[in-house]
Design brief:
Strand order of the largest sheet: 1-5-6-7
Distance between the termini: 45 Å
Shape: elongated
Helix content: 25-40%
Order of helices and strands: HEEHEHEHEHEE
Radius of gyration: 23 Å
Number of strands: 7
Length: 166
C-alpha cells in the first residue's frame, strides 16, 4: 500500500496573501452630469441653473458616491459646484469632481490606506496579481506593507515574484 503524503508547498511556505478585492468599495457610484442643467447644454445662466438644480430629487443619491461631471466643454463657475454640493450633502456619502472610475479608485485607495494591516507584520506577504486593477493600488500597497512585512512579493502564493526581503 502506498503511504505517500501530499504536501501543499504553497500552504507550507507560510506566505499570506494581500488581495485588493478584500478592500474593494461596496458603495454604489453614480455620475451627475451638469450639462443637463445648462442652457443649451453649454451655458450657466444663473437663474435658470439655480431653478434646475432646485428641481432635482436628490434623495436618489442617498448613500451613494457621486461623481460630478460635465460631458460638454462648458465653463462652470465654482459657485455652481458649491450649489450642487449643498444639495447633495444630506444624501451622498462621497462627492467629487470626477468620473465614476476615478471615484472608485479613490475610494479603494482610502479603504486600503485606513485598513488595519497589523496582521501582516513580520509576515511573508504576496500581493495578489490582478491585471485589471490600477497600478496605483500596487504602488499604495507596497508603500504601506514594506515597513511591516518580512518579505513582499507579487503574484500568487505558489509562484510569487520577490519585490523586497528584509
Amino acid at each position: 500500500m502506498n503511504t505517500q503524503t501530499f504536501v501543499n508547498k504553497a500552504e507550507a511556505s507560510g506566505i499570506i496573501a494581500f488581495d485588493f478585492l478584500d478592500y474593494k468599495p461596496t458603495t454604489e457610484i453614480v455620475e451627475l452630469d451638469i450639462k443637463d442643467h445648462l442652457f443649451m447644454g453649454m451655458i450657466v445662466k444663473e437663474k435658470e441653473f439655480k431653478e434646475s438644480i432646485a428641481a432635482v430629487d436628490y434623495s436618489v443619491y442617498n448613500e451613494k458616491a457621486v461623481g460630478i461631471i460635465c460631458s460638454t466643454d462648458a465653463i462652470i463657475p465654482p459657485w455652481a459646484y458649491m450649489l450642487i454640493m449643498e444639495k447633495l450633502s444630506p444624501y451622498a456619502v462621497y462627492v467629487d469632481l470626477n468620473n465614476a472610475e476615478t471615484i472608485l479608485l479613490d475610494l479603494w485607495k482610502r479603504r486600503i490606506t485606513y485598513a488595519d494591516l497589523k496582521h501582516y507584520k513580520n509576515q511573508k506577504v504576496v500581493v495578489r496579481a490582478h491585471t485589471h486593477h490600477d497600478s496605483a493600488l500596487y504602488l499604495l500597497a507596497t508603500g504601506l506593507l514594506k515597513p511591516l512585512v518580512k518579505s513582499l512579493m507579487y503574484g500568487e502564493i505558489g509562484l510569487p515574484k520577490v519585490i523586497f526581503k528584509n
